[in-house]
Amino acid sequence: MRLLITLALLAHAAVASAQSARTISPGMSRAKVVAALGAPTTERTVAEFRYLFYQNSCGKACGMNDLVILRNDAVVDAIFRSPSRHYTGTSSSPAAVSAKDAAERAPDAGATKSTSGTIRMKPPAEANDVHPSIPKNPPTVGPAPTSKPTTKTP
Questions:
Q1: pTM for the whole thing?
Q2: Is the dihedral of CA 72, 78, 79, 80 positive or negative?
Q3: What burial class does residue 46 get, using C-beta atoms within 10 Å of its C-beta: 0-12 exposed, 13-18 middle, 19+ buried?
Q4: Does 116 fall in a domain?
Q5: Does residue 133 come out as left (phi exceeding 0), alpha (psi in the -120 to 50 range) or beta?
Q6: For an engineered disulfide with 44, which of 30, 51, 135, 148 has Cβ 3.0 to 4.6 Å away?
């Protein structure tokens, strides 16, 4: 019986450890993030910010990879769509919107609903470049002066 309880506790500890290993918190260094999530698929650095991109299981349906943002080697934000990754801080990401909710919120003007239920935008009546934007009263620029202006002497 003790062996069974010990094995159950070890299994629980292993699951808890695996779950916490996929969790990151504000202030973690890049090294700790990589230890928790593995090597990023793509990494970009701009000034003091570093962006770590991770592939997720939802692919194109999510519209983005999972993202961890570090500033001066400390986590400041994370956006996760993968259910296996967690951020203990407050993410800047808005809540996900279901396809049904997005379709219901779509404006009716300029959109048509096909028989399959997908919403398609109507093309414009004419191309945007048919009537280029030309000012009606363009500024006039006179010729450069050819002689020196006269100066008054006191």
A1: 0.53
A2: positive
A3: exposed
A4: no
A5: beta
A6: 51
